[in-house]
Amino acid sequence: MSDTNLVISVDAMGGDNSPRVVIEGLALAAKKNPDIRFLVFGDEEKVRKELERFPALTKICTLHHSPEMVHNEDKPSQVIRNKNTSMYQAIDAVRQGQAEAVVSAGNTGALMAISKMLLKTIQKIHRPAIVSIMPHRYGKYVMLDLGANTECNAVNLAEFAVMGNVLAKHALGIKHPKIALLNIGAEEMKGKEEIRHASKMLRSSSMDIDFIGYIEPHEVPFGKADVIVADGFTGNVALKSIEGTAKLIRSMIKDAIHKSLLAKLGLPFMFFAAKRISKTMNPKLYNGAMFVGLNGLSVKSHGGADALGFSVAIGNAAMLVRQNFVATIRDELEHIDLEEISQDIYYEVY
Amino acid sequence: MSDTNLVISVDAMGGDNSPRVVIEGLALAAKKNPDIRFLVFGDEEKVRKELERFPALTKICTLHHSPEMVHNEDKPSQVIRNKNTSMYQAIDAVRQGQAEAVVSAGNTGALMAISKMLLKTIQKIHRPAIVSIMPHRYGKYVMLDLGANTECNAVNLAEFAVMGNVLAKHALGIKHPKIALLNIGAEEMKGKEEIRHASKMLRSSSMDIDFIGYIEPHEVPFGKADVIVADGFTGNVALKSIEGTAKLIRSMIKDAIHKSLLAKLGLPFMFFAAKRISKTMNPKLYNGAMFVGLNGLSVKSHGGADALGFSVAIGNAAMLVRQNFVATIRDELEHIDLEEISQDIYYEVY
Fold first, then answer.
1. Are B309 and B281 in a shared domain?
2. What is the mean pLDDT of residues B217-246?
3. What is the pTM of this model?
4. Alpha carbon of B344: minimum distance to chain A alpha carbons (Å)
5. Structural domain that includes position B9
6. What's the burial of B187, exposed, middle or buried (CB within 10 Å: 0-12/13-18/19+)?
7. A136 to chain B: closest CA residue
């Protein structure tokens, strides 16, 4: 792919401290990804002021003035009707083919609603899903859905498995990703009906994936699977439980060290060990939840992300665009009919 | 209550390294709880051999020979028919009124199935639940259901809230526990239908609880609520995600220190800080998942728990028995009709 082809559309007004942090994030991302150009949507005056600090970045940015912006408290039903927001216009650029992915740190519900409306789901995908790259003990894994769909049927879960499989290949570089369904037990009869049904679907010989069965949440951090599939409610609960626990332990360690003079004296000894942990566990390095299953890629940066975090979200988007993620999912689905596989299992059972 | 009245029935054959660890756990528990007597069920010869090491404990134990034991791979449907196992007989002692609680480190599914069959649910409780005491940043909280019921309706969730409320009062000593429903967002319309319905029920003026609304999983470790209510699938996912993350971070810290000579040199400085963390976060101190909602208390110790862990499970059981936990739940439910509250909300909505 030629180096001028990779265009990413950016909502400069989303997240805390925008557009400053967003523009700083683009500057960082541009250094690491010299093949990207940006379409930047936002308050022209404010964005230009920030861009002035980065002459090299300015050259690869096309600035579009958006008179309005989506606020955190805005409801999805309102924002989909307002074509004047930076978020709407940034997503619309992908619909029009001017960019291949959009990144925003704004309101998640709004980003999902507008993306779904404008980009539409890939043919044969019923439900788009939110997916993130996460760290485990020995590497990385992807987990989906992280909250786009509160309730899912077996076909939805199987679609997530197909998309997760492509994502793990593209984003993690794993040739044959191990796919698992998140469940509360290892035995085949455990959990909910839709999970058991999805398990039978994923074992079908028509599926070209390496399905390893159920995975329990406490096994996830130890690299048993590369792709963790769950409905959006369960995935969101798992994700936020992981985040909360990590935050709890961090704060308890800080607190314990703070309360001990001896421990404070020992801190310099811990410098390299702490750096090693932060290198793999730093939440900034896992910023950028991807909204997949649409005709175009929509990436959500954390609202509180700093420039490094935002640049990681841009980097994720760029990586998937380079590898033709959307087209690959379309291809994969051309050869399988998940509805048919699902029906066959019903006939087998009854 | 007189000090000879507190009798706890013990399945000596459950868990790894039984009956050795179980008997060691009883010895520890007896030191901390001088008011307990034990009915011990198991292989008489093996148990007696272990008891010989603890003359003081032997005096307060009544040993019953059970010719068989439940194995980890046994199915609940089988074990409920075998009256000769130590687990069955230990639970049956509670049914017969010989003991007020039973503790086992054996097969969880078997313990639940036999307990449910023999002890039966409290009148007006539809579904018993598994509940644990967990550590948060500033104290402790209880969470239920942790896996007894994969799918729950609003009435079930409201029952869990009532039981959790009593438990937080009795086990945590909190006068007016704050109750929250686990959900993936804070807004009223978030999550699943049964959660939204339960939320309306818990806000009803007929409920004598302090319901604070939804709590998201990442807020749980920071003490926002004293009682976290969820269906058994969600609660189990949250619990195991917390456990897995804590284990991951522990192993990464160990690994990072192991790989750095400097950090190893700094370890002595960290002794007191590490001790402080371990004092609040040590999983042994939170052993003993309680199966509540039955006419009698059934407590599951972790299969891999050591003597200290087993003694904590015994201590939990004793504490709830002392405070008449089962009777209090019965009393609480006498004054409210959850089915009626649930119906009223349906009428309001439609």
1. no
2. 96
3. 0.91
4. 26
5. 1-124+293-324
6. exposed
7. B248
